[in-house]
Amino acid sequence: MFRAASSVATLFLFWVALSGFFTPFLLAVGFGSSLAVVWLAHRMAVVDHEGHPIHLGLAATVYWPWLFREIAKSAWDVTKIILDPRLPIQPTLVRFRPTQRTEVGLATHANSITLTPGTISVEVGRHEFLVHALTTSGAEGVKSGDMDARVSRFESRA
Amino acid sequence: MTLFGHFSYWITMFLLTAGLYIVIARGHLVKKLIGLSIFQTSVYLLYIAPSKLIGGTAPIVSDKFTLYSNPLPHVLILTAIVVGIATLALGLALVVRIREAYGSAEEDEILARDEDAARENPRS
Amino acid sequence: MSALVDATSWLLLLAGGFFCIVGGIGLVRMPDFYTRMHAASVTDTLGAGLMLLGMMVQAGLSLVTVKLAMIGLLIFFASPAATHALAKAGMSRGVEPVLGRQERRPSKR
Amino acid sequence: MFVAAALALLTTLALVLARAILGPTVFDRALAANTVGTLASLLLAVIGFLTGRPEFLDLAIVYGLLNLVGTVAVLKYFRYGDLGDPGDEDVPEHP
Amino acid sequence: MSAQAAIVVALVLPLAGALLIALAGRVPNLREGFTLATAVSLFAVVATLYPGVAAGERPGIEFFELLPGVPFGFTVEPLGLLFALIASGLWIANSLYSIGYMRGNHEQHQTRFYICFAGAIAATLGVAFAANGLTLFLFYEMLTLVTYPLVTHSGTDDARRAGRVYLGVLLTTSMLFFLVALVITWLAAGTLEFTAGGILDGRLGNAAIGGLLALYMFGIGKAALMPFHRWLPAAMVAPTPVSALLHAVAVVKAGVFTVVKVIVYIFGVNNIAGLASVDWLPTVAGFTIIAASIVALRADNLKRRLAYSTVSQLSYVVLAAALLTPLSVIGAALHIAAHACGKITLFFAAGAIYTAAHKTQVSQLDGIGRRMPWTMTAFAIGVLSMIGLPPTAGFVSKWFILSGAYNSEQWTAVAVIVISTLLTAGYFLPIVFRAFFRPIPVADDHPHGEAPTTMVVALVATAALTVLMFFFADLPLALVRQLVGG
Amino acid sequence: MISTHLPVLQVIVPLVAAPLIVLIRRAGVGWAIALAASLFSLYSAIAISVHVQDVGVISYAIGNWPPPWGIEIRIDAANAFLLVLLGLVAAVVALYARTSVAAEVPAEQRYLFYAMYCLCLAGLTGITVTGDAFNVFVFMEISSLSSYVLIALGRDRRALLASYQYLILGTIGATFIVIGVGLLYLVTGTLNLRDIAMRLPDVEHTRPVLAALAFLVVGISLKAALFPLHMWLPAAYAHAPSAVSAFLAATATKVSLYILLRFCFSVFGATFIFGALPMANVLMVLSLAAMFVASAAAIFQNDFRRVLAYSSVAQIGYITLGISFATQTGLTAGIVHLFNHGVTKGALFMLVGVVVYRLGDARLDRMGGLAKAMPLTCAGIVLGGLSLIGVPGTAGFVSKWYLVLAAVETGHWWLAFMPVASSLLAVAYVWRFVEVAYFREPTEHVAAARRKKFGLLAPAGILLLAVVYFGFDPTLTVDAAARAAQSLLAGVK
Amino acid sequence: MKQYLVLRVIAKIMIPLMLLFGLYVQFHGDFGPGGGFQAGVIVAAAIIFYAIVFGLPTARKVVPDWLVETLLAAGVLLYAGVGVAGIMLGGNFLDYFVLDHDPVHGQHRGIFWVELGVFITVAGVMLKIFYMFASRRRDGGDE
Ligand code: NA
Ligand code: NA
After folding, report:
1. Which of these, E351, E345, E352, E358, lies nearest to E310 by C-alpha position?
2. Which chains pack against G, by 3+ Cβ pairs within 8 A?
């Protein structure tokens, strides 16, 4: 029930942000729409702790800035490689075991890897990640577990 | 502006020819459809252009009509997109059924199978 | 103030454009499917992000900025998911990755 | 300056299309298509600025959404040969 | 019955007959009864028109418009009435003959045969009474189509091939030339109405007149002007009553009738007489006469010989009309009638021979006159008419044609007529000679007498008609003199 | 009150009928609705025609937005005439469809058939009445998409392939059209056809206008199956359900030809297209090629539906030949043939549908002796064939007459012989059927098929009656066509 | 799509947002016509996305076939209904101005319902087409 109510609230906020109009009509329609979507989402069974990870709101404020920094750094690295006439790459596949417990955590971890240029999560399982890296140093970076630890911390803030 | 106009003109032409080429050159029915979609995409760019050339909005008749201006390019593009999607979807649906019926989605193979069928079984 | 805003947004847009093109070049240059994905993510992340940021600076605090942010968030969520799915599908359909040191010899050029 | 951005995007688009044409695997093309989607989204936003028409931003969002759905659909088709296949999916359960 | 009603009845009666025949298809006697009754009443209805038309009336009727400005209309004028009288009169004889022939030879699809026959008569009357070129064209094409099932009656491969030639030639000429000629006429004259004195006076140049005439003459394929004559010999595969229909009652007569009609009522005899651009027509007609006669001379198959004789005789009509003199035009009209009666007699005889003796070749006919005296006597009368000897209708018509040629000092035409008369005698008299003066071959162990009675009655009747037309030539002359305003 | 809204209801009624049928999902009710919608179409078309005859032009502003700002429905003598053809064929085919669809389409898809049928009719009607260039494209795609579905409902798997090929080529055509419209929009800033026409003279010889013309002509030609862009047509007509073949053959290409006329005469203007550009010669050459090549191809087909399909391509050549003269008579010829051929081909495809209904296919090598088993059907086919040939007394003759007339009138003497020469080829393919059906002994295959279906024959009979009626008394059609030609030649007023 | 954990999670997050975005476009569409098309496409895309990730049978349970067809049909009828209402109230077809005493309000009202009709139709058509070809199975893969 709480999850449903907070879903409606979140969606309504989303509506207001999109709309930018505050006429009674549009607000009413927005609220109605939020209700309708939650109802349909409920039928779809997508409003659960995965589909509506409201609990991770605060943690994101810590994790995301770090991630953005990482993305920027790696993007620059990859850029240098692309523009290097010799194209100095050493494609590598690495396997390692993630420490996250929830699917949201695993997904966040996998997406973070993929978002970071130079690494892509290929297989994402509870017990093993398979990552394709553009360079060996990138591969080592993933394996080092820094990101894994941060994602797990982010996940556990719930 | 003109630079962009020309650019979009050239891209239109490129997409047009590329799409048409794929439709003609490819034997796989799905690939043909993809070519067709590319071909249709060229139209969207074309319709973005007029709004700039004519000054953005359609003419306004009188006060009565100030609230809404009529056919805007993006409405036209949207319509074209909807038509394009519907065509693509119908095309894919057909390909799926063709695959079921012929066991292949390669044009040559399908035609060959029809010929075989005609030769082996004159009744069909 | 407005000059500063303009300059910043200029810079961001240009940088975004630069990274986009880099991604495009990488997509052409890289030797196999998987390495090309790395190039594409430059476009998806820094390229797109900086460009959107540039437009946000230009738009100031407005509805437009909110929408640009949404485009950003969309790319932020959707792009890695799609990339991952691509990689996974490629791997399971047997697209072999090129592995090991692939550096081009300068003598080749 | 938006013209410059648009030109950069169009240049990238040309490069990406080159990859789409070169292939060689269907996944390369899907990748290119996905990137085209991102670029188109951006281009629409830029054009919105160029022409002073914020509706294009909505269009950009739509394009981004459809791009995701499209890419996943293509992958599913080539992976399972059928878009409706449930796979061995664990169906979400009703709470 | 008013004249207009008579026209309508004359057009509808054969169609109604066809319907009755179809309904009575399962009862042969009733079916043939309907055929005969229709034929007789048709002739009677057409005959009611004679007094008025002979007195100078031109009854007509118009319906809707076939094309804007061109009505679906009918007008009875002398030539058309003469043609209608011949067609409906000979239909009676032909029906009588058909009954014997079709039953005697156990032909298939007899109902279809009688239906199409009635349809052909309807089309023929339409051609005869048509008030304008388009109405005529409509019935002309209808006649082609409705006779197709008759030509291909036997359904064999030969019949199918003959049908192809038949349709091919007739449709090709009519569509390619006749239709275009009509369109040009329409554009030039603004009307297609058959009008005494023609409708093209001064509306086209000399060369255009010549070209248009060519389109008409070659477009009217039913007149069998060479080189578009092949359909006629090809159609010999059909049963003899059909041959009679083609050669005497309807089809070729419709052709030459149309030729005369076009020359008289579209071009106008006086308008084109003396034009250099129409000189070629007598030449082509003359060539057809001689060439066809030579082919006939060499043909052993009796029906083939008769067919080429028809080709030759038709061109008499064309030649006569093309001489563009009043006398020759009268001759042309009379020759349509004369040839019809004579040729139908010959075909009836040929069919009787086939039915009774199963013989088809001239060389098989030795002594047959003794076994089939009625038939071969009638045949001899037909031959006299073909050659143009008294006391037959052929003499009258040939006389007029020759007089026309002689008076206008067209010596080539005179020569053609004289030579062809000799040739005709050359290919027909030997048959008569064989039949009566050669002994029956010893090998012939197939004793037979005359053909079935209805056939003999029919051929004797037409032979008698051929002779009667010599003695009562005034009757048709009263009509056709009006053609040239005399 | 309703009568003033007929122009829009003409489109809306079938458009609404389609979703109604989908909502109800019952084949029987679907058929009833489709029939009702078609009958309404016919009624409305006749009412509109009569009205147009009085007032000249009807203009209806959708949503009361005055043109050129709103979408305008604009009906003059030309499209009013076409509406009658559409209504007539739609109503007759709807009658025919009940039995035919029950035999050829699986039960669970029948309601879909009727829905698509109504949608297709709505699309075709929309193209015909709209005065808005972009709307032409939209309605064209509505009709095309529904046609693809309708064709794919054919029982043979080749129907799927035919539908696919049609989809590819049809979409290319549509895209060309929308590019052409876009270019016109680019240079004139308007989508209203009349408005475009009035602004065009200022920019006439510019590159975009010429490009627009080229794109439009090629695109429409593809949709109209103008030789040599007819590749999609034979297979589509041969494998679609019979009712669909009949309906499309009689209407779809005709509507495309109409829109070609509309663009050429009412938008670009005859003086520009035929005076300044070599359009007349190009069209003439292509028409002649169609008349001869396609007719010759028809002779060598084994599937009789393909014979008819190739014949359609040839007959379309007749229509465009008439157009290429760009004279009153020439246009009259083209337009009257548009009607006459529509009615004739509709009847023929319906009759072949009866053959298919009983034999399972319409292959000439398996139709030997058919006339014995199906005398009425075969007689009907022969009658329709005679109209294709253009024998006097059939509607086809009237068209041919005017074609020859137009040729002679404009001094193209040699051209006068072309339509008639091509109809001799028609004799050949019609007579192939005659010889097969009437001269061969019935095969056991033919003899085994004995099901009489009045429900199929009667509707075909209606169209055949029209063929003969308009052959003998063509005043109605010729006058209407002449008025249509006049209003097209008047250009922009 | 088995094992596509990432997609599943992303889908669960995005689908409600997509749906809401679709409705947003829908109800802000009358500031420029055409909103119904986009909205319909987006909502349909969200459901199609759901079907692709979680399987067609699951999606069919949520949005059954009959519902899709009903939607599709109802949308067109709604659109046409507004048009006919214009006629009934004495105006032309699709005449918004007569839908209320005040033409501007009338126009608002007209566009609202018409766009709703378009929205429902487009969503219905997209889903229908998707169901049409997703429900069939390829017999063996190539590529
Ligand atoms: Na990455
Ligand atoms: Na990436």
Report:
1. E345
2. A, B, C, D, F
Chains A and F touch, contact meaning at least 3 pairs of CB atoms under 8 angstroms apart: no
Distances in whole angstroms, Cα of residue F167 to Cα of each of A23, F172, F230, F312, G47: 46, 8, 13, 19, 26
pLDDT at F286: 92
CA distance E477 to E462: 19
Whether residue E456 has pLDDT greater than 70: yes
| Nearest alpha-carbon partner for D10 in B6, B85, F55 | B6
The residue type found at E146 is V
Chain Cα centroid distance, residue E66? 27
Its sign, for the CA torsion E239, E241, E246, E251, is: negative
DSSP F422-436: HHHHHHHHHHHHHHH
Q: Where does residue E69 fall: left (phi above 0), alpha (psi -120 to 50 degrees), or beta otherwise? A: left
Angstrom CA distances, D82 to B32, B91, F57, F375, G138, stand at 18, 15, 53, 49, 6
G70: chain F residues, CB-CB within 8 Å: 22-23
A46 touches chain D (CB under 8 A): yes
Judged against a pLDDT cut of 70, whether residue G95 lies above it is answered with yes
From the list B88, B82, B81, B85, the residue with the least C-alpha distance to B29 is B88
Angle at G115 between CA G110 and CA G120, to 5 degrees: 130
d(CA E315, CA E252): 11
Q: Write out the two tokens for D19.
A: 């990859």
Q: Please return the burial class of F473, using the count of CB atoms within 10 Å of its CB with bins 0-12, 13-18 and 19+.
A: middle
To the nearest whole Å, the CA of B72 is away from the closest chain G CA by 8
The answer to whether C13 and C54 are in contact (CB under 8 A) is yes
| CA dist A28 → A25, D84, G33 (Å) | 5, 36, 21
Q: How far is the CA of C41 from the centre of ligand 1 (A)?
A: 6
Q: Which chains touch E (3 or more CB pairs under 8 A)?
A: F
Distance set, CA A105 to CA A50, A64, B30, B35, E482 (Å)? 9, 14, 38, 40, 114
Do residues E312 and E420 make contact, with C-beta atoms less than 8 angstroms apart?
yes
CB of E213 closer than 8 Å to CB of E149: no
Both structure tokens of F191: 């989508």
| F209 neighbors F187 (Cβ within 8 angstroms) | yes
Contact in structure between G92 and F62 (CB atoms under 8 Å): yes
Its sign, for the CA torsion E398, E399, E403, E406, is positive
Q: Residue F80 and residue E322: Cα distance in Å, rounded?
A: 51
Residues with Cβ < 8 Å from E298, sequence gap 6 or more? none
Contact F306, F294 (CB under 8 A): no
Nearest to G58 among D62, D83, D86 (CB): D86
**Chain C contact for G13, CB < 8 A?**
yes
Backbone angles phi, psi at F58, to 5 degrees: -105, 130
Asked if D31's CB is within 8 angstroms of C37's CB, the reply is yes
The span from the CA of E114 to the CA of E100, in Å, is 13
User: Tokens 């080592």 correspond to what residue?
Assistant: A140
Amino acid at A6: S
Distance, in Å, from the CA atom of E193 to the CA atom of E121, rounded to the nearest integer, reads: 23
Chain segment E184-222, per-residue pLDDT in tens: 999 888 889 998 888 887 778 888 888 898 899 888 888
For residues E371 and E61, which has the higher predicted lDDT (pLDDT)? E61
pLDDT per position as a tens digit, C28-72: 988 888 999 999 999 988 899 999 999 999 888 888 888 888 888
Tokens of G83: 């048009």
**D51 token code pair:** 């022409």
Q: Which amino acid is at B121?
A: N
